[in-house]
Amino acid sequence: MMTHPLLPKLRELRLSGMVHTLDVRAAQAMERQLAPIEFLALLLDDELERRSQTRLARRLAQSGCDSQKTLAHFDFSAAPGVNRTLLQDMATCTFISRHENVLLCGPTGVGKSHVANALGIEALKRDYRVLSRPIHRLLNSLHAARASGAQPRLLGKVLSADLLILDDFGLHPLTPQAAQDLYEIIS
Predict the structure, then answer these.
(1) What is the domain extent for residue 110?
(2) 72 and 57 share a domain?
(3) Helix ranges, the chain (H)
(4) Is there a single domain that holds both residue 48 and residue 84?
(5) In sequence order, what DSSP letters do the residues of 68-93 get, joined into one string?
(6) Alpha-carbon distances, residue 79 vs 46, 109, 114 (angstroms)
(7) Are residues 47 and 91 in the same domain?
(8) 72 and 58, same structural domain?
(9) Cβ count near 129 (within 10 Å)
(10) How far is C-alpha 143 from the chain's CA centre?
C-alpha cells in the first residue's frame, strides 16, 4: 500500500504520523470492519501521538535533562535512605503548580542529580518548561551572554522556566557578579 494515493497528500500536509501507520491502520480497519470515522480517528491519534513525542523530544533536548536518568532507572536499593513514596508524590509535579521549592541535600553519590533530572523529565511530560544546568555552567553562560549582549534573553529563558534545576550547587566559588546573578535568579 506504499503507493496509496493518500501518501503524497499526507506528506504535503506534514502528517507523517499518519504516513507511517497508514498501512497498519488500513489493515486493522478492514479486519475489524471499522467505520470510516473510526479509521480516521485511529489515524488522527497516530498523528497526535507522533507530534506529542516530537515535542517532548525537542523540549527534552532544550531542557538539559538526561533522558536516561528517570525514576524508573533510579536504583532505590543503592540509596536506601531515599523515600520512594515521597518521590512518587513529587513525580506528579504538583509542587510546581503550587510554586514550591525543592532542595535535595546529601552526600556525594546518593542520587540527588538523578532524582532532580527524573523530576525534570516528569515535568516535561506534563508540558512544564524545564531548564536543568549545573550552577557553574549556567552562571558562566550568563557571564558570556552579558559580554555579547544576549544576557537579557538568556536570563529571560531561565526565569520563564516552570522548573529550574540547579545542580552541583556550591562546588565552585562564585565571583561577585555570579553571586549577584544567582541572587537575581533565586529572588
Answers:
(1) 67-124
(2) no
(3) 6-12, 16-32, 36-63, 84-90, 94-97, 112-125, 135-148, 151-160, 176-186
(4) no
(5) T--STT--GGG-TTS-HHHHHHHTT-
(6) 39, 9, 11
(7) no
(8) no
(9) 16
(10) 25
With a cut of 50, list the residues of the chain below it in pLDDT.
Answer: 1
What's the structural domain count of the chain? Answer: 3
Look at residue 1 in the predicted model and tell me its pLDDT: 46
* Residue 178 and residue 140 in one domain: yes
88 is a domain residue? yes
Q: Kindly list the distances between the CA atom of residue 72 and the CA atoms of 58, 68, 108, 114, 135, in Å, as whole numbers in the listed order.
A: 21, 9, 21, 11, 26
Cβ atoms of 119 and 102 within 8 Å: the answer is yes
In this structure, is residue 137 part of a structural domain?
A: yes
1 domain-assigned: no
Per-position b or e across 67-93, b if 16+ CB within 10 A of its CB:
eebbbeebeeeebeebeeeebeebbeb
pTM of this structure:
0.82
Measured distance CA(89)–CA(102) in Å, rounded: 13
Pair 76, 23 in one domain: no
pLDDT confidence of residue 69: 96
- What residues have CB less than 8 Å from 128, skipping those under 6 apart? 93, 96, 162, 163
Q: Which three cell numbers stand for residue 149?
A: 549582549
Taking only the tens place, the pLDDT of each residue in 22-60 is 889 999 999 999 999 999 999 999 999 999 999 999 999
Q: Do 82 and 45 belong together in one domain?
A: no
